[in-house]
Amino acid sequence: MSNISESEEILKNFLVPDNTRIKANRITVEGDVIVGNHSNIEYSIIGDTVIMGEGVAVSGDIAASNDIRIDMWSKLGNRVEVGGNAYLGEFVTIDGKLLVQGDLDVGKEVKIRGGFEAKGWIVVRNPIPVIIFLFLYIKEMMRLGKGEEIEKAVEELFDDSEDIQSFEGKEPAEKVLIIPAGAKLSHETIEVAGEAVIGNNCLLTGNIRAQAVTTGEKLTLKGSIYSEDKIFIGENSTVYGNLYSKGDVQIGRNSRVFGGIKANSVLLYENARVDSTIKAPSGVSFLRDAAEKPVLAEVNALGKLIIRETHELPENEPQGEPKNKPQDKTGKEPPDEPVKTLNVVEIDLPIKLSSKARNIFVPGRKRKTARTRALERTRRFTGTRTYRKEQKYGE
User: Looking at the whole model, is its pTM more than 0.70?
Assistant: First the structure.
C-alpha cells in the first residue's frame, strides 16, 4: 500500500530528468514521458516510451522510439511516429499521420485523419482502460489480503508489451519526465499544481508557476519563477527573469539571476549574483566558504613583514605549561627556545618612512626624553665640548 501512495505522490509533481530540453517548439527527453489527465501541451514530444492519460491535448508532433499509449478522449494535433507498438483508447483523435513499426491496438471511435501505416497486427476492440483495470485489480487483491501478488501480477501484466516499466530500482526524477494532471505547458508558461523538481543540465523556456521549485546544477531558464513556497536554484545556473516567492529563496554558488527577487528571505551562496533589486522582509544573507587561518605576521620598525611560527596547543590542552615537556639527559627541562623566524618579505607601506623620522617606538626600547634628544642633536652637529672652570691666578 505504501508503494501505491508513493506513486500517487510522485505523479502529483512536475519532475524533469537530467539533460531535458524544452525549447524551439519541442520537448526532448532522454527517457520516458508520462502525461497526467487533462493536460495541455503546446510542444512536440520526443522520448522513449510515451504514456498519456485521459483528455490530454498535444498540439505538436510525437516521436516515441519505443511504445506509445494514449488513453481515451485525447487529441494529438499532428504527426505521430512510434518505434514499437501503439495503443489508442476510445475517441482518440489524431489530426496528422500515424506511423507504427509494430502492432496497432485501437478502440472504438478512433479518428486518424492523416491515415496510418502499421507493419504489425492491427486490432480494433473496446478494451477497458489500463488505469481503471489496474485500480480494480489492486483493490480486489487488497480485499483478499494478497498484497504480495499485486506486484507480481503487475510485472506479468506488462512483461510482454513492456509499455510501462516498473519503477523499482529506477528513480523517476532521473529517467522519466512526469507532467502532472491538469498541467499547462506553452511557450510562455509552464504551470503545474504541485512542486517542480528540475534535474541537472536542463534548458527550459517559459515562466514557471508551481507550488515550490527546486533545480539542479547548470540550469538555463529563459523566464521567471512564481512559487507559493520555496525556490532553490542550483549551482552554476542562469535565470533570465525574476523570482517571486512567498517563502524563502536560495541561489547556489556561481549562479546568476538577470532580474530581481521578491521573497520572504533570500540566501546567496558563494559568488551568486543578482542583477536587479532584492526585496526580502526577513532579510538577505550571504554564505561564503570558510577561509584558511592566516599566518601570524608583524611589521617591524624598518617596514618589513615578519611571518612567525605559531605554536597551537592541542585540543583539550589547558593554557599554561604544556604537559609531558621533554627533558634532557640530566633530567632537567631544556630552556625555552626563542620563536623562529620563517622568512622576511619586503613590503611597501602606505606611508614611507623618511630619514628624519628617527623617533619610532620599538617594543623593548625605552622612550627618550626631549632633553636627551636635544643633547644628541647638539653632539651630532657641534661635537663634544668640555667646559672647565677657570682657576684664579695665585690660587
Answer: no
